[in-house]
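Protein Record: Sequence and Backbone Structure Tokens
======================================================
Tokens: labelled as protein backbone structure tokens, with as many entries as the chain has residues.
Task: work out the structure tokens from the sequence, keeping to the layout shown below.
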Amino acid sequence: MNLTLHIWRQKGPQDKGKMVQYNVKDISEHMSFLEMMDVLNEGLVAKGEEPVAFDHDCREGICGMCSLQINGEPHGPDRGITTCQLHMRMFKDGDSIYIEPFRSKAFPVIKDLIVDRTAFERIQQAGGYISVNTSGNTTDANSILISKEAADKAMDAATCIGCGACVASCKNASAMLFVSAKVSQFALLPQGKVEATQRVMNMVKQMDEEGFGNCTNTGACEVECPKGISLENIARMNREYLKASIKG
């Protein structure tokens, strides 16, 4: 198939960006979206032009690096997938595709389609950990009994890959789904109880300091999340925050 690509180009954080049009030909429907971008870049390099900068790593839907806004949707028109898992069969011959970086004050553009998402890392560092010593003298994993329901919900929350689709899909650029997933995966397990109060207070505080907006309650984040993180986690984080605030 032949496609017209409208891609955001920006040399650096302080530069003014703009949409630039490119044409790609003979794209197979079996290619992934990133493979299509590779074809574009190979053509640009062959012509002596600068390739389009975009993030990628594992290309297996695990790392969360390949965050692109495609035709106005984080990770594109499919559901439950990352950009690297999006295949070109979702498009038709002759289509125009608009490709932009995730838009958020807390995700400043580094270059072209690459944004700085270290705000997520700072939120994690503020409380996304446990103090239980899991090295050296380890004990059997089943020594503390956990209900299957709690274990399943904790595992569901832990599948968050921190891609930022929730932020990109929210009209307020809220990070509530991401933060609530990181809070929930510990709040549901006994190992996470030790720092429970400190964790939720510190992570929410850091989230606000990073410049993310408030939750809109529209549910766009859950719809666009490649791992299907549930809005229930936001409700759980709110309860955890309320309890922590009462404890002081």
About this structure: The beta strands are 3-9, 18-24, 69-70, 73-74, 96-100, 109-111, 114-115.
